[in-house]
Structure formats: structure tokens, C-alpha cells
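Narrative of activities, Objective 1.

The group set out to show that a structural description can be obtained from nothing but a protein's sequence at a throughput compatible with the screening campaign. Below is one input-output pair from the validation batch, recorded exactly as produced.
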Amino acid sequence: MQMRSAAQRPLRRAGPASEMSIKRSSYHHGNLREALIGATAALIAELGPHAFTLAEAARRAGVSPAAPYRHFRDREDLLEAVAMEGFDAFAARLKAAFDEGRPTPLTAFLRTGQAYLDFAREQPGHYVAMFESGLSIAGNSELMRAATAANGVIVAAAAALSVHLPAEGRPPPTMVANHIWALSHGVVELFGRGQPGGRAPYSAAEMLESGALIYLRGLGVLPR
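Output recorded for this entry:
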């Protein structure tokens, strides 16, 4: 969520090299699963979560149409694998951004917001698989674990912001985390689909940071 002076960049525009993928030229039998996940993430970024097929993922990975079935039951199984990889990478990125609250809880909290935006921009296929593909996270224990780990970083960051307040006056960290998560997702949607936010005189990062600061002041976490 840190403000950046750099020119505003669309959040869903990523080149092939930015997606966590394995190119066809680097395919080997030992990394078939990873190659298929990477190819599918790239397809989702290009076509959306409902347009890709196992056959096209296999073609992109440079393998036969039957090869995906060595690792995945069906298309849904492959989509879940993309989302799983995305949530794990997302959680790691948020954790690194938070850096245990250094140098201050507020600075660390704002960094996690920027990390959210960066992930959405740099890994659009994974992001869409995670949040916009219609997967049932609650119905998949592994996806739930990975998603909870990512959300847990924001919860910890929210809790760190309120430690200076009396216990009875602290807002619930989970509530704060969910509100900020929703705000972050909204900024991604607004700036990433060519909507009015894309023509705004401020960047996505500036919008997210200012919104978060207004929200936190309203809660009494920050001085007015």
C-alpha cells in the first residue's frame, strides 16, 4: 500500500516471463506437473478461468493431450493446482512484505497492501484462479489451508497496529484484515479491467493507501 511516484500501471498486464510458468523449451519429463500448472496460469491470464482446456494446457506445455491425466483428474483439478500454487506464493510474498512489523507496524502494514497489488499485476493467471474462478475454497482443505495462511499475515499485521490501544478498544484484527483484503481486491478490479480507475489521476497504490489510512483513522487505530 505504499504510495509510489512511478506511473500508474494496469494490474492485469503481465508478460509471459512474469507468470510462474515453465516454457515449452524448458520442459522435461521430471517437471510435467509444474509445466502444466505454468501453462494453465498463462492461459487463464489470457483467456480467463473458464476458457482453457486440458488439451490446450498440454499443447502449451509441449506434451501430448493425454499427459495431463498423469497428474490431474480433470480440468477442475488442474485449476485447483494453479490456485494452490498461487496462494502459497501469495502468502510468502505477504509474509516477506510484513517482515514481522519492521520498522513500524504501520509501515509494514502498508507494505502488505502493495504486495497484494504487485502479486495481482505480476501473476494474473494465479490471481484469477484464486479469486475469480469459482473454486470452492471452503470445500477443499488444502486450498483453505493456503488461503488461511495468506489471510493470517494480514490478520497479524492488523493486530500489530492496535497493540497500543487498551484491550477493550481494539478492533477485531480479523475484521480489519477482511476489510483491507476487500479494499485491496476492489482496487485490483477497478484498475485492472480498464474501468474508470484506470483513468484516475492517481495510481492504484495511492488509492489503496489513502483508503486504508482513512479506514484506520476511522477505527481510531491511527490519530486523526
